[in-house]
Amino acid sequence: MPSRPEVTGKRGSGSSMKEPFSQELSPLVRIVDDEETVRNSEKFIFRIIGLESETYGSAEEFIDRVDETRPGCIVADLRMKEINGLEMMTILRSRGIKLPIVFLTGHGTVDSAVLALKNGAYDFLQKPVQPERLQEIVLKMIEIDKERRAKEKAVEEKQRLLATLTERERQVLERVALDQMNKVIACDLSIAEHTVKIHRANALRKLGVRTAMEAANFLKEARSNE
């Protein structure tokens, strides 16, 4: 049976130690390994630095239960029965799961390490791995995942604001972003220059930008994940 999620790192009120992350962020380390002793060992390694982890006994179990809602990362064995680590990563990526992954293996080769990294793994470590090294890598992966989520959230907010524009406001904005003059835009759209000024002002106000360059950057960022 898979381990239940376990909140770790809680300290007594008199302790001077601080948790590496606030409860609000609540990162989770997903441990995928077919050896129970390894799973328990890694869980302990993360617990002592205040990180919560959840364990899975196979790639199949993880694929069936994976939830990317919480930020974090994946620590997975490379060689597992049925579905190995690389195959698991391919399946996850095909489903849009972007959690960073570090692979651990007791039978690693240069070729397998290169293949893992080429396919998007964050790192590749030989077992037995030094606890401090694994902790360091996991903390870095969590930061990377948090940054990715923040960027995606910023893009989503820009897309939301862009969707508030009328069709005409958007047409004008597209041309403003190209640094076209109002009279040129008016001629292009067959509307009065005064009307262009109104749509331009409304579009820039809704998006919270002021200049043509800011409008161009806004559109570029809003379309960055298309």
- Beta strand count: 5
Shape: elongated
CATH homologous superfamily designation of the largest domain: Response regulator
Name of the CATH first level of the largest domain = Alpha Beta
Beta content: 5-15%
* Gyration radius, in Å: 24 Å
Our count of domains comes out at 2
- Following the backbone from N to C, one meets helices and strands in this order, namely EHEHEHEHEHHHHH
If strands are numbered along the chain, what order do they take across the biggest sheet?
A: 2-1-3-4-5
Q: Report how far the terminal alpha carbons are from each other.
A: 40 Å
Main sheet attributes: strand count, strand direction, barrel closure? 5 strands, parallel
**Average pLDDT over all residues:** 88
Helix content: 40-55%
CATH architectural label of the largest domain? 3-Layer(aba) Sandwich
* Classification by helices and strands: alpha/beta
Output the number of helix runs: 9
CATH topology of the largest domain: Rossmann fold
Q: What are the segments in which pLDDT stays under 50 over at least 5 consecutive residues? A: 1-23
